[in-house]
Amino acid sequence: MEQNMEYRQQMIVRYKAAVEPLLKYLPWMERNAGRTVSRNYQGSGLSKSSMSFPVYEANLMNFVREAAASPLMNRNYVYVYTRNRIKSHGDEKRLIAGAELKDWDILAGILSKYVLEGQTKATLWGEAVQEDIFVLVLRKMKEIIGYWDKAGRK
Questions:
Q1: Could you tell me the pTM of the whole model?
Q2: Of 23, 32, 45, 71, which sits 20 to 30 A from 17 (CA to CA)?
Q3: Phi, psi of 26 (to 5 degrees)
Q4: Can you tell me the distance from the alpha carbon of 6 to that of 22, in angstroms, rounded to the nearest whole number?
Q5: Angle 27-135-131 (CA atoms, 0-180°, nearest 5)?
Q6: Upper half-sphere CA count for residue 114 (Cβ side, 13 Å)
Q7: How much is the CA Rg of the chain, to the nearest whole Å?
Q8: Residue 38 β-bridge partners
């Protein structure tokens, strides 16, 4: 029993260290939830046959950069999606809302999908902000850490 509590506290310390650098972006994400956080580049030199591309706000780019380098990234996020039958934003939101400590890999998998896949499909970063996915995952991770961090100190 004592070993389980010690192991859980080690996990919480590790998770907290991974999430804390990303939490500084939470207020920005909450302010921009449901909004479009990109615009299409309309600069000079683009011809009518040129393909436009999204330009994101600096806060989002910094978040994505830090998240991509964090230990939260799971390159096998596709497996998380198939194992949990996640097919829509509604499925993601339902799983995030019901997540507990044992579901940390689901939260990391959802975060990983948007951060990593967004590197090749740029619209996903904006979609994650518009659909509140980043906000919901970060809030849930913070909630789980807060609960178990307090429980471990008792």
A1: 0.86
A2: 32
A3: -60, -45
A4: 25
A5: 125
A6: 28
A7: 17
A8: 56
Q: Which residues of 102-118 are buried (b: 16+ CB within 10 A; e: fewer)?
A: ebbbbbbbbbbbbbbeb
Determine the Cα–Cα distance for residues 31 and 46; give it in Å rounded to an integer.
Answer: 32
Whose tokens are 């990391």? That residue is: 108
- The chain-wide mean pLDDT, for the chain, equals 86
Q: How many other C-beta atoms lie within 10 A of the C-beta of residue 143?
A: 12
Bridge partners, 54 (sequence order): 40
Q: What is the structure's pLDDT at 14?
A: 95
β-pair partners for 29 = none
Residue located via tokens 């850490």: 145
How far is 107 from 102, CA to CA, in rounded Å?
10
- pLDDT at 37 > cutoff 70: no
SS (H, E, C) 110-149: HHHHHHHHCCCCCHHHHHHHHCCHHHHHHHHHHHHHHHHH
